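step 3/5: co-fold with adenosine-5'-triphosphate
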Amino acid sequence: MSEDRNARHKRAMQRKKEYIDGRIAEATIDKGLLVVLTGNGKGKSSSAFGMLARSVGHGLHCGVVQFIKGKWDCGEQKLFQANPLVEFHVMATGFTWDTQDREADIAAAQSTWEQAKKLLADDSCNVVILDELTYMLTYGYLDKDDVLNALQSRPDKQHVIITGRNASDELLELADTVSEVGETKHAFNAGVKVQLGIDY
Ligand code: ATP
Ligand code: MG
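step 4/5: write tokens
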């Protein structure tokens, strides 16, 4: 009986391997990806910084531009800011509901975006993270076409990762990979405060 099961398992795995090997052989395109991580659940920025860790591990040159945040003492910033492979820019104004000042937010967003644009035009920058960029577009702080143009005309091999809720249809259309992180449960809703290492 258990031999039968083992033999069935082996046949199933052989078929699976043939299928997977075939799919891998078909994937021949090599290009810079636009990855969009959106949705209401937790895990967008931490996924982006996971890819940053991978990239730095391989010795790639990376740029990080964090929109909105920066008032908290983020672990990722502490870790990567001193790394010679990473150029780190933070729009240190905090959340829009803290600043409550649209004019100042727009000025900060635009000067931070100029840093992002430089990275998106830089051939030697392999990976660019635009953390929380989507809010700059939903609030109308940045010109949508300017952002889409800069993304479209970036170097062919450059990877870009964008995070933030409510990514626009145009951004999703332009992206190669989109993950929508859903909120099944979040500790905050049970009254748990932000936790060092897990949340920042
Ligand atoms: P993370 O940086 O942990 O990957 P995120 O980028 O997906 O989170 P953001 O919307 O940028 O999510 O929020 C950042 C902070 O807010 C984190 O501390 C995170 O734990 C918390 N957070 C994320 N999603 C939720 C949620 N649905 N409810 C409450 N807090 C959340
Ligand atoms: Mg985030």
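step 5/5: annotate
The radius of gyration is 20 Å.
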